[in-house]
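re: that chain from earlier
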Amino acid sequence: MAEPQSNARLRADAGAPTSGVIHVRTRLTADFTVIANALAQRRGSAVTVGVAAYIASLPDGASVSIAALCEHFTEGEILISRALRELEASGYLERRRERGHGGLIRTRTYFYDVPGQGDPRPAPPVPPRPRRSAEPETHRKTPRPEAAPDTGPAPAAQVGPVPPPEPAQGLTPPTALETGDAPDTAPPPQLAEADRQAVVILASLRIRDRRLILSRREVAELAPAVSQWLAQGTGPEEIAELLTTGLPDRFRCRPARILGFRLRDLPVAAPTQVAAPPVLPWQTCDGGCERAFRAAEPGRCRDCPPEDVITAGPAITHDDHLRAAC
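^ sequence. v structure.
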């Protein structure tokens, strides 16, 4: 006898959508990346979402520079740079300038799955605790208590602050840096004591760039460096051009730090100009030819004979001398 079979479907048909996308889900167990819908469905450029998804899929330590991203994508540097700036403005990407080993400054990139969540800085490594060597019980010796000598009554405890020990003879007391104490800081510079021309140059920088708004303390700190540049022969226009040209699009610190860094290295002093020799005035020859020549005092030109030659020899006239010279 045949087994009874049912022609009913195993699962009720909920009905496929009449339009739009239909997802075919596959459960992934390896080689996948979780991206928030806020990032995947972000309105705007598709290049920005693609760059964000690619950076999220990379392991820690991978290079995400513009050159490395251009090698992976077909877009150029302009679109890749624009996508990084959009991610940075939205809070998904953060680029920091940190000082590494050896004092080298490098740029570290942090990528957030959710903007504003988590601390990108890793926790400092905990130094390992020293291990105490195990000693067998048979080799341990318990010291026997010795009777302390009778030295009389114990001295009374001192009340009040204990004075610091005096340094031994021939030794200098430790400095503040050696003891770890904070050194005495110098008073902040006053704006009234700064050079007026340097103050005017620093205060006028906001006319060239509206972001260069300096406080009174910052102007007082930068004024001595500007005065040194002026003393080296650099003009106010040249100093303003140096401080306002090539600034970054976005400041990560106060603009006074960037200005102080640019004023750190003094230029070479301008050489003194050598005075040109004085030009002799024009003179009219007194010998009769009335030629014009340059000389410090009036007299005769080089073609006319001196006056003593004409008076000493009356046989040679002035016309004969000119005819012989020609």
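The beta strands are 93-99, 105-111, 282-284, 292-294.
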